[in-house]
Amino acid sequence: MKVIVDNKIPYISPAIEQLANEVVYVEGNLFTPELVRNADALIIRTRTHCNRELLEGSNVKFIATATIGFDHIDTAYCKEKGITWTNAPGCNSGSVAQYIESALLLLEKEKGLELSKMTLGIVGVGNVGSKVETVARKLGLKVLLNDLPRQEKEEETAFSCLQQLAEECDVITFHTPLYNEGAYKTYHLAGADFFQSLKKSPIIINTSRGEVVDTNALLHAINQGIVSDAIIDVWENEPHINLELMNRAFIATPHIAGYSADGKANATRMSLDALCKFFNLKGTYHINPPAPENNIMVANTYSEAILKIYNPQRDSMTLKANPEDFEKQRGHYPFRREPDAYRIETTSSIIRG
């Protein structure tokens, strides 16, 4: 079996080399028809577009993307050609929740906001959105949930319409997949009409897909005071991002909210598990990230400890200083663990261990 693997997928090499006869590692944007022609399987990330142009005439039977999103896979073409594909839903949900928690704490610390008096709207309440809800409630925010597919399927009254979020929320955060058409279309879900409906000049957070938020409409809303601030991790036209939005945003990061070592390990494990299931292989691999150099985090408060573990302003400063290195910053992202990897000790108590 021959497998082509994105060379930025961590912790994968020892395991995949036990499972496959031939493994080729390559940059995600350098997959070519010639490279994949004789491959049986591909393990990719978002930079590899699996479509007719890449796959036509190849031997590829299976594709695993070590990401939650799968809009870079032409699923209709794969179905037509009998190619099985899989993604890694929920793999980095804890990492994105960590990013959101730290961002909210930074808003409190640097902008003087009182989280306990604020309402957070979550658009998309799947694996990620559900964990963001838990984090937000822990921090004392009131939470409104918007998820049309879940609301229609579950007939729950716990969900609010998008208009209610626009009217009542101080912060609105997006965690939806990207659907370009259909009943649940999310392409430019936050567009001009959405921004015009806002009542409280909220802060907008996007860690889902860049195209969920209309960049020009968001910039106009910021310039008009309709939106008070923005926290942006995902961008339209990556890696060629809008520099005006980058500079205006409170936090601007290079699509790394889900890049904790924990999330990466989860995605790698899920991809390998799916590969083994499809090809009926038996793997004995263990995919775990290294422990932090010091897993005891001492701080005056829980909030201080969380920001010592991960402060997204560091990533934001790096991007704003060198936006042309967007891809490099993603590809060489520093080691980050989630809070559960630490024993947090404050001056009064041990918070987590």
Termini Cα gap? 43 Å
Estimate the helix proportion, in percent.
25-40%
Number of helices: 15
Number of strands: 14
The major beta sheet can be summarized as: 6 strands, parallel
Shape: globular
Radius of gyration: 21 Å
Strand order of the largest sheet: 7-6-8-9-10-11
Helix/strand class:
alpha/beta
Main features:
alpha/beta; 5-stranded parallel beta sheet; 15 helices; 37% helix; 6-stranded parallel beta sheet; 353 residues
In short:
The protein has 353 residues and is an alpha/beta fold. Helix content is 37%, strand content 15%. The chain has helices at residues 13-19, 33-36, 52-55, 75-81, 93-111, 127-138, 148-154, 162-168, 192-196, 215-223, 243-248, 261-279, 302-309, 312-321, 326-331; strands at 2-6, 22-26, 41-44, 62-65, 84-86, 119-123, 142-146, 171-174, 203-206, 229-232, 251-252, 296-298, 343-345, 350-352.
Compile the SSE list and pairings.
Layout: E1 2-6, H1 13-19, E2 22-26, H2 33-36, E3 41-44, H3 52-55, E4 62-65, H4 75-81, E5 84-86, H5 93-111, E6 119-123, H6 127-138, E7 142-146, H7 148-154, H8 162-168, E8 171-174, H9 192-196, E9 203-206, H10 215-223, E10 229-232, H11 243-248, E11 251-252, H12 261-279, E12 296-298, H13 302-309, H14 312-321, H15 326-331, E13 343-345, E14 350-352
Parallel strand pairs: 1-2, 1-3, 3-4, 4-5, 6-7, 6-8, 8-9, 9-10, 10-11, 12-13
Antiparallel strand pairs: 13-14
